[in-house]
Amino acid sequence: MKKSTKKLAAILMCAALAGMSVAGCSNGEPETKAPETTKAAEETKAETKAETKAEAKTETTAAAKSESAVNMADANVKKKDPSKHYKFGYTCMDGTNPFFVTIEKTMREMIEAQGDELVSVDPANDVTLQITQVEDLVSQKIDAMFMNPAEAEGILPALDQLKEAKIPTVGFDTEVADMSYLISYTGSDNYNAGFVCGEDLVKKCPNGGDIIVLDSPTMNSVTDRTNGFLDAIKNHNFNIVAQQDAKGNLEVSMGIAEDLLQAHGNVVAIFGGNDPTALGALAAANAAGIKDCKIYGVDGSPDIKAEMASGTSLIEGSGAQSPVKIARSAVNIMYSYLNGEEVADRYPVETFLITSDNVKDYGTDGWQ
């Protein structure tokens, strides 16, 4: 069977929810054991301390900045001069990703409601193309720019062009390598989004096991999520048998997962850096007949929530975020700046875990 045919079959299988899910690990608590040696007790104490420290760091960072995030995401900033017309540029790493589709749609609605214009481009995860597209937007004499980079480092030449043209830029969702180019940034607490997935896996698989990680090293947001996940599972007997770049894309993820699952069919879990990656892994796992694996993503997308709500999916959880709040925050930041108001360097948006246990609280028809 050709690979393209295999992939089509896998997608259809995913859509049909063919495979019945069986719990990937024990859901019970670890068996209580008698006290061990002093050395073992000290190691356990050290592990607990490290975990608490990582968790405290995440919670402190989010708590310290949550007020500004809520105020800006929920604000309704109007431009000071209604007769002034602004042309905004918009670029994101992958315009076909439902997460970015929602961000672009929300931004466009807010901007057009004020009589302004949004010109959007899609580099399809190609930073070279993204640089060219930004250069074209500069030539169109845009007044300001919304930036989500395909590559944190690779996008710097485009930011140089924007800076030279004195075009203010608000970053969203994914940081750039040099944040001094931006007037402000808004995005999810990505580290925590991965951390809560790892916490859930540790709870549900107390004995550890082999896992696959599908990340995207060129995307800072995915790197932060992956780091959070890995920190949460550290020292809990998990063995990473493979860690590969899925580029945040469903088809790429599915192809990689197909190959990896042939060699590692007994993995207890797969972590994907975003929901499309997790759904690609799901399609591959279903096609391979995998019945005992927990798959995690990050986004909390309608598609991933529908999988969890079905009660028959290998999708175990998603570190959820809100593209609507990110979009609203970015637009309000921009109008505040153009009105001459002072804006903070950063406006974080909260993240949290959605599983089959609480998915009913968020619904499956749209984003939270």
What do these coordinates show?
The chain is an alpha/beta fold. It has 2 domains: 10-27 and 190-321 and 355-361, Response regulator (Rossmann fold, 3-Layer(aba) Sandwich), CATH 3.40.50; 68-188 and 323-348, Rossmann fold. The protein is 46% helix and 17% strand. It contains 11 helices and 12 strands. The strands form 2 sheets. It has a 6-stranded parallel sheet with strand order 2-1-3-4-5-11, with helices on both faces. The protein has a 6-stranded mixed sheet with strand order 7-6-8-9-10-12, with helices on both faces. Strand 8 (269-272), helix 9 and strand 9 (294-299) form a beta-alpha-beta unit. The longest helix has 36 residues, at 38-73. The relative contact order is 0.16. Mean pLDDT is 86; it is low at 1-24 and 26-70.
Topology:
Layout: H1 3-16, H2 38-73, E1 87-91, H3 98-113, E2 117-121, H4 127-139, E3 144-147, H5 156-164, E4 169-172, E5 184-188, H6 190-204, E6 209-215, H7 220-233, E7 238-245, H8 250-263, E8 269-272, H9 275-287, E9 294-299, H10 302-310, E10 315-320, H11 323-338, E11 346-349, E12 352-355
Parallel strand pairs: 1-2, 1-3, 3-4, 4-5, 5-11, 6-7, 6-8, 8-9, 9-10
Antiparallel strand pairs: 10-12
